[in-house]
Write a structure and sequence with these properties.
By secondary structure, the chain is α/β, with parallel strands linked by helices. The chain has helices at 3-34, 46-50, 53-66, 79-103, 111-142, 155-166, 183-195, 207-213, 228-239, 280-314, 363-371, 378-384, 397-406, 423-426, 435-447, 451-464; strands at 146-152, 172-179, 200-201, 218-222, 244-247, 260-264, 267-271, 320-326, 332-338, 387-390, 418-421. The chain folds into 3 domains: 3-141, no CATH class; 145-250, Nitrogenase molybdenum iron protein domain (Rossmann fold, 3-Layer(aba) Sandwich); 280-464, no CATH class. Strand 8 and strand 9 form a beta hairpin.
């Protein structure tokens, strides 16, 4: 689907959300004052409640935007997953709305009305998305299909056919497939097309004559990188005969994260590892990090004072210990911790990965490590911008350089800021556990990042407690 159609769909989705949440507010008003509930101070004018709709719309759009509901990657999520996401995000939007009404001085709205609205708006929003999904499905069925030719080979042929079926490339009628590749690839392609009852056409030398007798409105070229020479030889002839030509880039074998396209000085540039935290979402996450770090520092300040005293009087040396760690884009920063080892603990051994048999920690240090209280100063790293509240845990550069040689894709975890806690940690992969499993969790986090996932990780971190059997 081209960017213009995508933007239109996003706008329609936003408009539907505004309509449904506004309707839910009006519905709550009528249910409160005209459905038999006791009214002590008289029925307020509807106008007083209609004045709140613009504020409700802005709050809901902002929260839903921040939580990624209008991203392209969410378009084909199942109705159940979409409903679950709407419920989670609506809770946050409702809390923001209640906070807004508390500070809104012009009129004190009925608490029962707000309560009814808080419960019903989720169902109205889910119903609105369902209506829109069915309307789009009906529109696609009635829209005039575009005669489409697919030129492909290998796995990209399958990708092109699947995308065409979903309507991602065009609302099309696949009129034929031209197979390109070696004999084995063409044979496999013929069998694949036969199973799906698709007509296989011969390769062409005269594209002008071919398209005169076989008019097409769209051509999709989906060839692996080793067949790009065929594109060089034929694409100009195809593009001069067909108004809509699309080329699927063969990047899947290079990227473990989402790919992205941007225009730089009018030239399209493909990023094979696109960050989910580019643009406004990165700014909002940074604001949340700052607010969260300040709140955490205030809440844990008594604990940090006690820990500082214990560290100071339990062994010689500074209270804080700073250590080089590698963060976003491979940049090294000084991560702060409460000191848990004697000052010269690594003088003889050098950098050593902590294990369950590690006996270098002081008695107080062992307790701090086991309870993860030694990590509390990292909230100051979050304030400085070196870290985030949630993200892959940072490692020492010497370990990073070793791991990236041994584990494919290891360095991709540095696509986002390092975190105090992360998806790997709440799933038990910390300390002397599988590095491969940790990387798998880190890449899952980056691929599936959302504010709701961040909140889930923070909640799991809090409820699982600070003590962990793998913390040492």
């Amino acid at each position: 689907m081209n960017s213009r159609r995508q933007n239109i769909l996003t706008l329609l989705r936003m408009m539907m959300d505004v309509v449904m949440v506004s309707f839910s507010w009006v519905f709550a008003y009528y249910l409160r004052f005209y459905a038999g509930f006791e009214v002590l101070k008289g029925v307020p004018y509807l106008d007083l409640y209609l004045k709140m709709i613009p504020f409700i719309s802005v709050i809901w759009l902002f929260v839903f935007f921040v939580f990624g509901h209008y991203r392209r990657s969410n378009r084909h999520r199942s109705a159940i997953l979409e409903g679950f996401d709407i419920f989670q995000t609506s809770v946050v939007a409702t809390l923001a709305f209640i906070a807004f009404t508390f500070f809104y001085e012009e009129y004190r709205y009925s608490r029962l009305t707000v309560g009814i609205f808080s419960m019903t708006q989720v169902f109205f929003l889910i119903a609105g998305r369902s209506i829109m999904r069915k309307a789009l499905r009906l529109y696609r069925k009635k829209a005039a299909p575009r005669r489409t030719l697919i030129i492909g080979g290998g796995e990209l042929l399958v990708t092109a056919l699947e995308m065409s079926k979903l309507g991602d490339i065009a609302s099309n009628d696949i009129a034929g497939v031209i197979l390109v590749g070696d004999e084995a690839q063409i044979a496999a392609g013929r069998q694949f097309c036969s199973e799906r009852k698709l007509e296989v056409l011969d390769q062409q030398n005269d594209w002008a004559s071919f398209f005169v007798t076989n008019p097409m409105q769209t051509v999709i070229v989906a060839l692996p990188q080793k067949l790009f020479g065929w594109i060089d030889d034929n694409l100009e002839g195809i593009a001069s005969q067909v108004p809509d030509v699309k080329v699927l880039p063969d990047l899947m074998k290079f990227t473990k994260l989402a790919a992205g396209i941007e225009l730089i000085s009018g030239v399209p540039v493909i990023s094979i590892h696109d960050s989910p935290l580019a643009g406004i979402q990165g700014v909002v996450k940074r604001v949340i990090d700052i607010v969260g770090a300040i709140v955490a520092i205030i809440l844990f300040s008594p604990v940090m004072i006690i820990v500082s005293v214990l560290v100071k009087f339990s062994s010689d040396g500074p209270i804080l210990y700073t250590q080089d760690r590698m963060g976003i884009d491979g940049k090294v920063f000084r991560m702060m911790k409460f000191r848990s080892m004697p000052v010269a603990a690594e003088a003889k051994t050098g950098a050593v990965f902590a294990t369950a048999k590690d006996n270098r920690a002081t008695p107080i240090g062992k307790l701090l490590r086991k309870s993860s209280l030694d990590e509390l100063p990292q909230f100051f790293n979050v304030l400085l911008g070196d870290m985030s509240l949630v993200g892959p845990r940072p490692e020492r550069p010497v370990f990073v350089n070793d791991f990236r040689r041994k584990i494919p894709g290891y360095f991709l975890r540095h696509k986002v800021k390092a975190g105090i806690t992360g998806w790997a940690q709440v799933n038990g992969w910390r300390g002397d556990t599988s590095i491969e499993k940790r990387i798998e969790c880190d890449l899952y986090y980056i691929q599936n990042w959302s504010f709701s996932l961040d909140i889930r990780i923070i909640v799991l971190t809090v409820f699982q407690g600070f003590f962990n059997k793998n913390a040492y």
